[in-house]
Structure formats: structure tokens, C-alpha cells
Design brief:
Two copies of one chain form a homodimer. By secondary structure, chain A is of the alpha/beta class. Chain A contains seven helices and five strands; from the N terminus they run E-H-E-H-E-H-E-H-H-E-H-H. The first copy, chain A, has a single domain, classed as 3-Layer(aba) Sandwich (Rossmann fold).
Chain lengths: ~240, ~240
Amino acid sequence: MEPGRGDRAVVLLSGGIDSSTTLAVAVNDGFETYALSFDYGQRHRCELDAATSVAKLLGAKRHLVLAFDLTRIGGSALTAELEVPKDRTPGEIGAGVPVTYVPARNTIFLSFALAWAESLGAFDVFIGANAVDYSGYPDCRPEFIEAFEEMAALATRCGVGGHRVRIKAPLIDMSKAEIIRLGARLGVDYSLTRSCYDPTAEGLACGSCDSCLLRKKGFAESGIEDPTGYSNSRGP
Amino acid sequence: MEPGRGDRAVVLLSGGIDSSTTLAVAVNDGFETYALSFDYGQRHRCELDAATSVAKLLGAKRHLVLAFDLTRIGGSALTAELEVPKDRTPGEIGAGVPVTYVPARNTIFLSFALAWAESLGAFDVFIGANAVDYSGYPDCRPEFIEAFEEMAALATRCGVGGHRVRIKAPLIDMSKAEIIRLGARLGVDYSLTRSCYDPTAEGLACGSCDSCLLRKKGFAESGIEDPTGYSNSRGP
């Protein structure tokens, strides 16, 4: 069954480049979109304000922020008292799983998206996972996305009824520059988005964590001006 | 790699018969157990006190209660303002997915268990899923458990390292009576456990929801006395 225009889709929205672009793709595909964000104890909570702005800009039908505390589970620099690595080289980023990996995060996020999809009668879940310009997280790879979809077909009432929820990762094979060019074409205002893992108290991007470095590289290669204010590049 | 005595295991613990028995099985297998419960907006929150008592009785190393609000997602009589069905016949229970099904609940629960396992360095997750005397929930079937384990191997850092987290459902093929006899042998005090979906304000079991009916039938068939106080069977 192919989706018709106006069908519902749940879109995971962190407020960064990838998820914001993914929301724009879902809207452009004709879906009525239900954006889902998580307040999970991340150090970079300002991404939630970004998600709210992006959901509004792109016309999401609803934006739901679910809260749970992953700091109680630990195991990551994003939620525990570990240092966020800075100024790593492109060769270091993506080689091995870094300390900013949050255990099973995308599994948890997709599980809630699946639940909401089933409750809404939606058969499409979008995630901005990307396995090109990424941090080497295992749960961003296409084989993970496919395995989640297989599992989801067995997990749900709609699966039992033969309606399979599709897990769509439209950016999975794209470079960050390609993603930025696509989003710009679809009306994403990247000045609203936030990528930094370790922002200042004022919400300024650090400019040197993996996520900032991937963002900078993506803008540089896209030919589109980076609207981000970085705390480490304020000139004299 | 087979687990040795003293290895860590995460055990999902709702505080009912099946999860309490599963915790006893994990302890008996020699694991250091980490019990995980969820305060998700269920009407039967008193099960959390039961879980705490059971975790203490059986010597869980830790008992973590994570909170998130599934009422915001809806779609179930257990979290939304729908009526819990009462006095259904054994033929009705298990035929089709009932309104007490919570969308993707076991997927969500197992996702958090997987995250905690990865953070703890545990390679075993126990769940009290049962597909015999059960309510017909899709996410209690063995094919779901297997699919989740497949997905988990791709989702995690330890999976990338070749260490697969096993999802163990030791009760999956047992009748409720067999489960009760097993738990009694392993030291579970079922007077501490709670099964009812729709308890009274005082925490007394209703005696007529599917979960109470399955519990009553299980005790009757086990030959072990049911220690539960039911609100609808208090004599004159």
C-alpha cells in the first residue's frame, strides 16, 4: 500500500540538520506530520527549542516532546559526566564508536515513534539517520533501520493485521552537503537548527565537537553559508 | 560465550506473576540482577510498589524505575480513558488484540533494558513474556522476541564488537499454572505481586479483568492457594 497525500507520518525531530531536513522531506512527500522529540537528559537541551521552531516553520500537525531520564542509565558523554571530545580529525570521526554514543538511543526513539504511529494510525516513521558524514554510531546504519522495521512488523497490532510500519531514513546515503542543499531547497531555515553536543550556557555552538565539525564541513562543501554562531570563531 | 555465575542481567519487572517469576529464574541462574520497572501512566500504578517489594525479596542488586508518560501517546485502555473489559470468557481472552494492548509497549521496555544492559556491560536481558495464558498481545510472541534480539545486535556498540545481547523469555511456552509452580519453588511470594489492570483506590484487585481472570485460573490449576485479595470476591 503506497501512502496517499495527507496520510500521517511520525517524524523524529532532534532539531539538528538531519532531522529537520527529514521533516521537510516528509512534508514534501505529502504527509501530515507528527514531530516527536525527546527530553532525555541530554546536555544540549537547547536542541528542543530548535525542534519546536523547526516543527512550526515546516507546518508539523503536532509536536510532542516526551521526557525520560537517560542519565539514570548512563554510559554516554551526552548524558553522563564524561568529557565531549573536541577537535577530532575527519579520520578520527566515524572510526569506532565514540563516547558520545548513547546506548540504544535510536532504538528507544524509534520505539516511541512506533507506538505513536500505531496510536495515530500512521504507517510511516521518518528518521534522519545518516551513515556517511556521521559519528560512527551503530544505530545509524541501514542494516539497523531494516532490522528495526522487521521487528516492528511483529511488535504491533497493525503488524498482526498485515499493515507494516515503514521506517524511512531518506538521508541515509547522503553526504552532509547534499543534505543541506536538499533542505535549503525544501525551505529549511538552518539558522533555527542546533547541532552542538556541548553548547555554552547561552546556547552558542562550541564549534569543535564532532557534531559541530560535521556541520561546518557540510556547509563548507554545500556552498551554502553556515548561519551558525560558534563560540570559538567569534572574531576580534 | 555462556554466562558465568555473577554476570549481570537486566530483568524487566512489572510486579506481576510472570515478571516476578522471571526475576527468580535469573537469580537462580546465577546472575547479578538489575530490575527495571516503568512508571508510564498505567492506571495500575500500584504494580510499582509490588515490583519494589519483589526486587527486594529476591535480592536484585538494583531496582530502577524509569518514568515517561505514555498517556500522551494514548491508544490503550491501560493508559487512556477507555473501559477495561471485564468478565470475558477464556475463549475471548487471547482471541485478537484487546483494548488493553499498549502500542509497542514491550518494544519500548526492551529498548530501555537494552540501553541499561549496554551501559552495565550485561549481555542478558530477561522478560516475562508468555504466549500461552496471555492476552493476545503481539509483543509477547516468541517471533517478536527473536526479532528484537536480531535488531539489538545491530543497534549497539557491543553488537558491533560481536557481543550479542540475548533476550531471554524463559516463561514463553509455559502455562500460568506452570509459572506459578516454578516461582513458588524458587521462592517467589506471590502475595507481593499485583496483576490487576483496574484495581480499587485501595489497591485491591478487581477480580474480573483479563489479567485477574488469568491469575485466578493459573492459581486454580496450579494447586497453590491464591493469596490475592479480590474486591469482587469478598464474602458476606
